[in-house]
Amino acid sequence: MPAMIVHYLFDYINFTSCLVIIFLFLLLIDVIRNKNPPRFPPGPRPLPFVGNVFTGLDFRTINKLAEEYGEIFSLRWGSDKVVFISGYKMVKEALITQLDSFADRPAVPMFEKIFQGLGLIASNGHMWKMQRKFASSYLRYSSDRQKPFELSIQQESIFLCDAFKDERGPFDPQLLLSNAVANIISSVVFGHRFDYHDGHFQNILRLDTEAIALSGTTQTRLYDVLPCLFDHIPGPHQKMFANYKIILAFLNDEIKKHKESLDPSDPRDYIDAYLVEIEKRKSDPEAGFNMTTLLLATLDMFEAGTETTATTIQWGLLFMMKYPEIQKKVQAEIDRVIGQSRQPVLADRPNMPYTDAVIHETQRMGNVVPLGAPKSPSKDTTLGGYFIPKGTVVTTNLSSVLYDKNEWETPDTFNPGHFLDEQGQFRKRDAFLPFSAGKRVCLGEQLARMELFLFLTSLLQRFTFSPGPGEELSLEGQLGFTYAPSPYRMCVTPR
């Protein structure tokens, strides 16, 4: 009996020792593999194997870490290192001064699963240049045709105002705003708009909003640590992927309809023009013009052309209710410059400095894409005295630019005066970067600026906005990939 106990104890010690040795060996490999190169940006000490996965990736946490570690610091997410760049001067240095240094997109597992490194946003190199050039050319061409963007937005503003007028009592404007903004890019991409009572399209909008919100949460981002494992376990990432599967099926149906009715001599919209381009570009397969890329480029156009602008308008209406004295001043300028007998036009904007300032301040305070889209250096790069190796994931903290205490007089206060000079005329601000900057600047910036002005002035020309009875208006938003207002209900009073 004692001999058996000794034998068992000996086996146990051997087994335990083996586990300890294996653990120490794996720990050594982890330390060696993840050792930072000289002059790499500092950051909080990572845990073995998983890194800083328990550190929040929301912009407020990133801002606090920047105060502690400096405007350039790093986190480790699994085995991947992420460098964060904060503050106007340093973000400007990265995106504008070093124009070519941070123009690539990194291979982030979650986005790779959806976008496969294709399309307008996720691609790199020759493919990205050709895809962006084609989309940019088409947007310019589309705005010069018989039905330019301005007219399309004006017509959609009428539908939106009528929909608001039909509401009885307090209502949440989120879905109507998303539908209205989506119809502008839908007219470009699909060649038609969608009625506000189209249940299928409204479901697509809901799924897209939910997917974008989920993509920015810490729980979902855990997928990037061990994608092979998380592919097989439940969680919010699975809901996000399921949503995108339905959205892509919807877009694929639109593409199939276009293929069946395509007249190559007379392309009706972006999908038609792309289908024609696929035939033209057969000799240049590296440019990526094929059916898969069309599907993902269409997803890029649809999402980029809807979510951020609709969310900014949501913020705008919230701010108008929160600060009714500002709403009255905007309406007074609208009445003075436009009146009530005609619709707003883009030519009115230079004569409406206060309204323009309010819209810009809405974008600044709304902070809709606080951390921008991830980038990576195309070559080994030095920034602020730190070494950032080629391929490192880099996040430019746009929130820190829009709230930079060195650039804005009252960064934490909604203040249209940020964009007005002493004579009350509109003034541009260098630190106003809601669309990012550099080679990866938002492709739809000009369209978004048109939409914000025409939609908001049309709504404020027709209505006065106030919170629903008992509604507590909060300026605390909900953070996903975008930063959106908490749901609210509002009342509209015709003017």
Number of strands: 9
Shape designation: globular
**Tally of separate helices:** 18
The appropriate CATH architecture of the domain at 117-367 and 403-494 is Orthogonal Bundle
Cα(first) to Cα(last) distance is 96 Å
Low-confidence stretches: none
Strand numbers in spatial order across the main sheet: 1-2-5
Q: What is the SS-derived class?
A: mainly alpha
Summarize the biggest pleated sheet: 3 strands, mixed
SSE succession: HHEEHHHHHHHHHHHHHHEEEHHEEEE
**CATH topology grouping of the domain at 117-367 and 403-494:** Cytochrome p450
Mind explaining what this structure looks like?
This protein has 18 helices and 9 strands. The strands form 4 sheets. Strands 1-2-5 form a 3-stranded mixed β-sheet. The protein has a two-stranded antiparallel sheet with strand order 3-4. By secondary structure, the chain is mainly alpha-helical. Helices cover 52% and strands 8% of the residues. The protein has a domain at 117-367 and 403-494: Cytochrome p450 (Orthogonal Bundle), CATH 1.10.630.10.
Offer a quick outline of the entry.
By secondary structure, the chain is mostly helical. Helix content is 52%, strand content 8%. It has a domain at 117-367 and 403-494: Cytochrome p450 (Orthogonal Bundle), CATH 1.10.630.
